[in-house]
Design brief:
heterodimer; A: 8 helices; 7 strands; globular; B: 19 strands
Chain lengths: ~200, ~475
């Protein structure tokens, strides 16, 4: 996993509440057996018309927002389906940070597994950043170590993040490797559980 | 010291250890399907890892499968990408030695129908699956929730998950429901009340006499929709209804083990003095049948209601969302919802495709026919549900009413297979999500119970099922 420390880049406003993962990446892109190549499916119905032509009105199709790396979003971003194709598509498109007041739980967890930083801020803070992202200058800076978002006007907003999740992103840690270091504890637990619920033990 | 909630007890029984702020939680049952696992198996192999407990894993093929011609097997699936994904699952489970009910096997079906039906889902368990509607299994008093593909890989490799504990919420449904009102209506009313982010960060325990009175199928419908309230999981304490459902199922304990299991299961309930972070009470005797008008499950209305005025919403975000939803849905503020003419009716999905759901719809459809302009289909939740429905003659009722009697799978709930809405088509659906494009790009979904979907099929527009009961 690619570590995340600092990020500077364009931010695009997506002022839509409850933007679900079906919108983030529609069903027809879930038939892949790969994690890569999903950028085309990102916000597909917003970006493309029924003939597959780009819709000029959608923010990510506008010239000023080419190369967007940060999204400033409405409440409850990424609710709905558990599809990890949503963060994969964002990353493949070049987005490495999403800012919102709240997120769907599973999407939020999925971000950390992929080196994508979801930032939770107060409603007023999100609105202020949304306004700046709509303006002429939309270069934002994110510093994970310092836990800050710096807006184009120079406003610095602090954000909270669990220390463990922060470290995981900063170092690009592999969760499975970390958990496998606890294999003796898992073994002990399984032995004890096997005595408590023997009917769940099936011949492998 | 205050007592423990049901959630606290299941959590405590599965703590393997701690790593920093995270708890390593043991997973008793891992359900897998074709769409959210190929990358997980590829990741395992790349890292030279193996599946730790294939015996604690069960695989089905449900999301992508066509709902006709299943007996022809995977190689006959026309969609090339879907076929490859289904074949990949077959190869992966063979590699790992995981039990698999492939397409065409009578035991196959929607993962959240199959687990309980086989008796794999049991009280006090932890259950995960790469699918958000895993909350369904909470109906048995099991802690069950959806996970992403990276977490699927983590569970395959370690049989554990790294977790942070959620908060406790309790929703009590009290009173006796009127005719035509059931668990789907309870759930939609709750989501309408607290919103799709109302449960975020919480596990919701359902209680109250209206919940206790529900069958297991009804409880599964209620817990299934918990994710639509944004909650991590839904839970219902096991009781005699739970034990009666489980007894005799293929994977349920037998003989002396049954008595031992029963003792264990009976320890899973919330202590009378347990504290909840949040409590809600809903009197079901005051509920009408519910239906959604917009593009979020929180856009729920009683059937006598009218489409709301977007400008009446509190926040700017909500006003914008409502305007957008009305435009997408082709509805006008102030219009009675019963004026919405439907083109399609879908009865199925992990929310409402079990035998009771089919009986409920068939009871309305018996001796009646659907409106001539409506195209209607029913996809049973599993091959076994379909067999039982046929044994009861329900298939004849559906077919004589004008429904298409399809083979099992997720089908038009998410339209990954060929069952999809065309742009602009309006659908009365027993599924769980009315998101834009969910059932097909430009498709317009109204969520409702199986009985309400049957009423809509007969009338040709959204209708009050109480006219028929």
């Amino acid at each position: 996993m690619q570590p995340f420390d600092k990020l500077e880049g364009r931010a695009a406003p997506l002022p839509i509440a409850n933007l679900d993962t079906d919108q983030l990446i529609p069903k027809q892109f879930l038939k892949t057996v790969d994690r890569k190549g999903l950028a085309r499916g990102l916000f597909y119905d917003f970006r493309f018309d029924f003939d597959g032509k780009p819709k000029p009105d959608f923010v990510l199709n506008q010239p000023a927002y080419q190369g967007t790396k940060i999204l400033v979003c409405g409440d409850n971003f990424g609710c709905g389906s558990s599809r990890e194709h949503a963060p994969w598509a964002l990353l493949d498109y070049g987005v490495r940070c999403v800012i919102a007041h709240s997120f769907g739980d599973i999407f939020y967890n999925n971000c950390f597994e992929n080196g994508l930083l979801p930032i939770r801020l107060l409603v007023d803070e999100v609105h202020a950043l949304m306004e700046e992202a709509r303006g002429g200058n939309h270069m934002f800076a994110i510093d994970l170590e310092a836990q800050t978002v710096t807006s184009p006007s120079g406003k610095v907003i602090h954000f909270d993040i669990h220390p463990g999740r922060k470290e995981k992103l900063l170092k690009g840690l592999d969760s499975i490797g970390e958990t496998l270091a606890h294999a003796p504890e898992i073994d002990r637990f399984e032995t004890a559980k096997g005595h408590q619920t023997p009917w769940l033990e099936r011949a492998s | 010291m205050s007592g423990k909630t049901l959630y606290d007890k299941i959590w405590d029984a599965h703590v393997v250890g701690h790593d920093g702020e995270e708890t390593i939680l043991y997973i008793d049952l891992h359900l897998i399907h074709e769409v959210t696992t190929p990358q997980a198996f590829a990741g395992l192999r790349e890292a030279g890892r193996r599946v730790r407990r294939p015996d604690r894993t069960l695989a089905v093929a449900d999301h992508n499968v066509p709902t006709e011609g299943q007996a022809l097997g995977v190689d006959a699936v026309k969609d090339e990408e879907a076929r490859l994904q289904l074949q990949t699952l077959g190869r992966n489970v063979a590699w790992a030695g995981i039990e698999f009910f492939p397409m065409g096997d009578v035991r196959n079906g929607i993962v959240h129908v199959v687990g309980p039906e086989q008796g794999r889902t049991q009280p006090g368990m932890t259950i995960v699956c790469g699918d958000s509607h895993t909350s369904t299994h909470g109906a048995f008093g099991a802690l069950a929730h959806g996970i992403g593909t990276s977490e699927v890989e983590h569970v395959l490799a370690t049989q554990t998950l790294r977790q942070r504990k959620a908060k406790n919420m309790r929703v009590r449904f009290v009173g006796r429901p009127g005719p035509g009102v059931g668990p789907k209506d309870y759930a939609l009313a709750l989501i309408g009340l607290i919103g799709t982010a109302g449960g975020t960060g919480h596990v919701i325990e359902y209680a109250g006499e209206a919940v206790e009175a529900l069958s297991m199928e009804g409880r599964m419908t209620l817990c299934n929709l918990t994710i639509e309230a944004g909650a991590k999981a839904g839970l219902i304490a096991p009781d005699q209804t739970t034990y009666d459902y489980l007894q005799g199922r293929p994977s349920a304990p037998k003989g002396g083990a049954w008595e031992m299991a029963l003792d264990y299961w009976k320890s899973f309930f919330s202590d009378p003095d347990a504290g909840f972070d949040h409590e809600i009470e809903i009197d079901v005797s005051r509920l009408e049948p519910q239906v959604t008008w917009g593009t979020s499950p929180e856009d729920a209305l009683p059937i006598s209601g009218v489409v709301p005025d977007p400008d009446g919403f509190q926040s700017e975000d909500k006003r914008a969302a409502a305007h957008r939803a009305l435009d997408y849905m082709g509805l006008k503020a102030g219009q009675p919802i019963t004026e919405a003419r439907v083109d399609r009716v879908f009865i199925g999905s992990c929310t409402n495709s079990r035998i009771e759901d089919l009986r409920e719809a068939a009871a309305i459809l018996k001796g009646r026919t659907i409106a001539p302009h409506v195209s209607a289909m029913v996809a049973a939740g599993s091959g076994l549900v379909r067999e039982q429905a046929e044994a009861e003659g329900l298939d004849r009722i559906f077919i004589e009413a004008g429904f298409d009697w399809r083979e099992p799978g997720c089908s038009m709930c998410l339209g990954m297979n060929p069952d999809r809405l065309a742009p602009g088509e309006r659908c009365a659906s027993t599924s769980n999500r009315n998101f834009e494009g969910r059932q097909g790009r430009g498709g317009r979904t109204h969520l409702m119970s199986p009985a309400m979907a049957a009423a809509a099929a007969i009338k040709g527009h959204i209708a009050d099922v109480r006219e028929f009961v």
